[in-house]
Amino acid sequence: MTIDILYFAWLRERIGIPRERVDTDAATVADLVDELTAREDRYAVAFGDLGAIRVAVDQELTEFDAALDGAREVAFFPPMTGG
Amino acid sequence: MTIDILYFAWLRERIGIPRERVDTDAATVADLVDELTAREDRYAVAFGDLGAIRVAVDQELTEFDAALDGAREVAFFPPMTGG
Amino acid sequence: MEIRVQSEPFDAGDALTRFSQGHKDVGAIVSFSGLVRVDGGLRYMEIEHYPGMTAKAITALAEQAVARWDLRDLLVIHRYGRLEPGAQIMMVATAAAHRAAAFEAADFLMDYLKSRAPFWKKEVGADGAAWVAAKDEDEAALDRW
Amino acid sequence: MEIRVQSEPFDAGDALTRFSQGHKDVGAIVSFSGLVRVDGGLRYMEIEHYPGMTAKAITALAEQAVARWDLRDLLVIHRYGRLEPGAQIMMVATAAAHRAAAFEAADFLMDYLKSRAPFWKKEVGADGAAWVAAKDEDEAALDRW
């Protein structure tokens, strides 16, 4: 399946791009992260500490064990600092 | 001693005047209330339920057993409803 | 710190704009404004106060708030006299570096202004006038602090 | 209920004035405004957000507040982009018949906007830029609700 992946804040800066489109068979967010980190060092560095990263699937906050079944957009970012 | 007595809200309405000056030897606020209620019915009615009345001596909230020693102004009023 | 006791109407938004300007280490501003509710039965509200004591009592409450929370500034405006439905009765604003202090101090000030500042509200309606009774819950709210 | 996500500056006082007008059974209005602190080291703040998600996430929080408290109205404004020291970052306003609901709902919305709305703050100073780290206390604050 084809998924748009978005990166925000320091995750965007470390990976070097705000978004990309990937073809993947990853079943869960965690599987997708494994695929990405296997690709290039900058991904491995950016995703080094998953405890410091939050994820949204189709614009809803979720967990790393969430299924990607039918997902069209996955976003990774640090804990939010609004307000 | 001479004391100015002030009445507010429904206490003022029941007694019929906003303030008066009295000569008194009352030692405490409670003594002063006894003197007033002995005077006329409208005072007895107004002071009928002391639980519903608050008192300030020289513009500081206090209790009915407070001493009047040196006091110049005593105010009686219902519980406050500001804000 | 500014405390105003006045019969004149005021606009809480204008007051907030002025209050917000010219501060330095302020990240958070909380305001509370109390309004005369618009309801069919009410013609107007009349607020009596104790002129000699009012500003003094509010100042004492404000000083308690300043002693207890790390505030950068504080504003209290309270009207007396005749107020029409929809009018602003009063407002409190607090400015602090952090939001918790600004929220708590404003909440504290409101609880104490309700029950410890010498104001008395009377509602005048089509059927006559009645003094607003103090609520047990307003007295109980003071125990939070 | 109004939710605005915008890069344009706004004035919290003006917004409060507009928010306060034309309500009926409203006795209490609480506002919170967050400002960029004025401190020597900070040149400006840059706020990044997630356009597709932001308004949706804030709307979901606002709906939670409306379901939980008896509110008459609610306003959220949040800026993104470059903000100068002293600028308003965001504001929340709540209108209710009673003060407790207005205070609690505003406090709740602030806690959740801090940690659950997709905004990220970067501080740009003389010595370079740094992303603002989320605070443990902000995450812990959610347990209050």
UniProtKB/TrEMBL annotation, chains C, D:
It catalyses: 2 [molybdopterin-synthase sulfur-carrier protein]-C-terminal-Gly-aminoethanethioate + cyclic pyranopterin phosphate + H2O = molybdopterin + 2 [molybdopterin-synthase sulfur-carrier protein]-C-terminal Gly-Gly + 2 H(+). Its EC number is 2.8.1.12. Pathway: Cofactor biosynthesis; molybdopterin biosynthesis. It is an enzyme of class 2 (transferase). GO terms for biological process: Mo-molybdopterin cofactor biosynthetic process. GO terms for molecular function: molybdopterin synthase activity. It comes from the Bacteria. Heterotetramer of 2 MoaD subunits and 2 MoaE subunits. Also stable as homodimer. The enzyme changes between these two forms during catalysis. Converts molybdopterin precursor Z into molybdopterin. This requires the incorporation of two sulfur atoms into precursor Z to generate a dithiolene group. The sulfur is provided by MoaD. Belongs to the MoaE family. This is Molybdopterin synthase catalytic subunit. It comes from Palleronia pontilimi.
